[in-house]
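Fold Annotation — chain and its backbone

Fields — amino acid sequence, structure tokens

___
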Amino acid sequence: MRKNLIRRRILKQIQTHIKYVNHMAPFPIIDTYYIDLLRTKLDMDNINYDNEPVLCCSNCKSLYIIEENGLSHCVKCRTSGVELETFICIDDYLSEYGDIWNIKNKKDEQETGSN
């Protein structure tokens, strides 16, 4: 987590410096496409993927699903046209099937009081 904060701070400093250099020059010295890539990267760091919906295979409960030509394929059990289970977030998935993968859910640990 700390590593991400440091990286984010450095990227913001680079972006600020590049904007300053381009503003002071008679024409943009540093490519504006590069500035847009930095802005996109900084915006993507704000996304909390833990709150995104999760789809898993109904057979093996794997999250490794590929959609191709309108059909869902599970890579783990190699099932084509598999039915998918939908969860609101990764925490709900881990509450249900975390024991299969030996993964403890953060919410479950907090509720039981263990660290």
